[in-house]
């Protein structure tokens, strides 16, 4: 195949270059920008990155979101911040046996974090930009301004477990009242009955392999953003008590240095779907979302309160990121491994304490009866 000489390529118009670059995805566009000065110059056009972001995150099509992205630095910066996922390679370097230790001599500032820093953080500074896809097809886009219920009485938000429930707090400006539905027309396999699904698990596999979640947190004050979700599910299960519920967990490991003794926490996103119709009922197979929530958990599985969560979320916006999804999985697996080690050590310690208590009780009883008799 003949290759055009360099002078022939250089003679092409910028309009043709632009037409070529506007058809590329984000990663390819970034690579193309490194090939020649013409591509580098044209690739700085905001409209190109706006198209890339619009394709990847449909929620960025909203006018209020466009204004927000322009305010924090533009679509090019937004893509560079939010496409790579957060990765914590230092998880295994922390001393896991210190996670459950809260020194008695900690001051209030040490326990709750930097109080001066906390005063500069407001729940209203954060914006959640959420997109759900199934088999690369957008099925839900939501934008949540601020953190719901953060103005509670007497600092309720700051001292209670942090949680954002998108479905119950979503804007009610759409016809389906914030509920996400999936059906055969979206790519689901037809299910004749739940009994059959229990045996072959076809619907479960399609959901596990097809669901994608992006949950971007933006801080308007410091003009930073990051994608906290893992795109693909980290794990999932069927909720057996009803046989019709499917639960999926997305997330990432975030730094909690100088905020919690564990130094790291896990940001967990729970997505639940329930089967509402099967082919046996005379209509196509349909699923409805029942939960989409975000919360932070420490190494012991305890929910982090609102005060500390704000500090952690702010730190997360400047965490290390990677476009290598395997690194993200390794980070999450390392966290799970350390968490399991902590749980096993805690069980062993409790077992030792129980044994000591039982032996002490036996000795006390024997001593009592010795003196009585």
UniProtKB/TrEMBL annotation:
Superkingdom assignment: Eukaryota
InterPro entries assigned to the protein according to its UniProt record, in alphabetical order: AT3G44326-like, F-box-like_dom_sf, F-box_dom
Ranges for domain F-box: 11-50
Cited PANTHER family: F-BOX DOMAIN-CONTAINING PROTEIN (PTHR33736:SF12), F-BOX PROTEIN-RELATED (PTHR33736)
Protein name as it appears in the record: F-box protein At2g27310
Species assigned in the record: Vigna radiata var. radiata
Recorded name of the encoding gene: LOC106771049
């Amino acid at each position: 195949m003949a290759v055009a000489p360099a002078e022939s390529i250089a003679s092409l118009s910028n309009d043709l270059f632009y037409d070529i670059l506007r058809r590329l995805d984000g990663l390819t566009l970034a690579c193309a920008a490194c090939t020649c000065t013409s591509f580098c110059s044209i690739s700085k056009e905001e409209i190109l990155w706006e198209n890339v972001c619009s394709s990847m995150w449909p929620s960025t099509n909203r006018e209020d979101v466009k204004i927000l992205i322009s305010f924090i630095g533009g679509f090019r910066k937004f893509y560079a911040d939010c496409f790579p996922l957060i990765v914590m390679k230092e998880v295994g370097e922390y001393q896991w046996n210190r996670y459950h230790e809260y020194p008695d001599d900690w001051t209030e500032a040490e326990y709750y974090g930097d109080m001066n820093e906390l005063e500069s953080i407001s729940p209203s500074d954060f914006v959640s930009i959420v997109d759900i896809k199934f088999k690369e097809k957008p099925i839900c886009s939501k934008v949540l301004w601020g953190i719901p219920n953060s103005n509670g009485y007497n600092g309720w938000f700051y001292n209670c477990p942090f949680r954002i429930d998108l479905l119950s707090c979503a804007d009610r400006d759409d016809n389906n009242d914030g509920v996400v539905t999936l059906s055969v027309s979206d790519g689901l396999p037809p299910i004749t009955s739940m009994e059959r699904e229990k045996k072959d698990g076809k619907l479960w596999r399609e959901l596990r392999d097809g669901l994608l979640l992006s949950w971007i947190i933006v801080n308007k004050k410091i003009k930073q953003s990051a994608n906290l979700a893992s795109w693909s599910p980290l794990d999932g299960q069927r909720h057996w008590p009803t046989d019709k519920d499917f639960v999926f967990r997305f997330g990432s490991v975030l730094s909690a240095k100088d905020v919690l003794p564990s130094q790291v926490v896990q940001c967990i996103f729970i997505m639940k779907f329930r089967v509402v119709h099967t082919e046996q009922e005379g209509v196509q197979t349909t699923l409805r979302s029942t939960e989409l929530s975000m919360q932070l958990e420490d190494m012991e599985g305890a929910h982090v309160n609102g005060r500390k969560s704000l500090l952690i979320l702010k730190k997360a916006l400047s965490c290390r990121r990677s476009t290598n999804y395997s690194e993200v999985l390794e980070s999450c697996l390392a966290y799970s491994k350390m968490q399991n080690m902590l749980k096993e050590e805690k069980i062993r310690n409790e077992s030792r304490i129980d044994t000591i208590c039982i032996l002490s009780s036996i000795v006390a009883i024997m001593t009592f009866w010795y003196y009585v008799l």
